[in-house]
Amino acid sequence: MNIIAWIILGLLAGAIAKAIYPGRQGGGIVATMILGLIGSIIGGIIATLLETGRLQLTAATLSIPGIIIAIIGAIIAIFIWGLMTGRSSY
Predict the structure, then answer these.
(1) Which one, of 78, 58, 57, lies nearest residue 13 by Cα?
(2) DSSP-derived 3-state class of residue 23
């Protein structure tokens, strides 16, 4: 996937995940994009694990199912970040 598609996927997934997840998450456009890209990787790994039963480093693609997987991964990343920093989302 080229870099423009990664940027678009990151922005879409990160922004939607921030809107869905309760509470206030800081960060600007770059943090949202990075969150979406991390979510894409987390979601891709989970989807591959559920589909094939193998743990493999993959990422979601710029498609409707890929965006949904990236959003789920970004929500997981927000949750894990909240656990690591000790901040509650409320």
Answers:
(1) 78
(2) coil
CB hemisphere CA count around 88 (13 angstroms): 1
Q: Taking the model in full, what pTM does it have?
A: 0.80
CB atoms within 10 A of CB 9: 24
What total number of domains does the chain contain? 1
Is residue 49 situated within a structural domain?
yes
* Furthest C-alpha separation in the chain: 37
Per-residue pLDDT of the chain (90 residues; tens, 9 = 90+): 577 887 888 888 888 988 888 877 777 788 888 888 888 888 888 888 888 888 888 777 778 888 888 889 889 888 888 888 776 555
Could you list the residue range(s) of the whole structural domain that residue 73 is in? Answer: 3-85
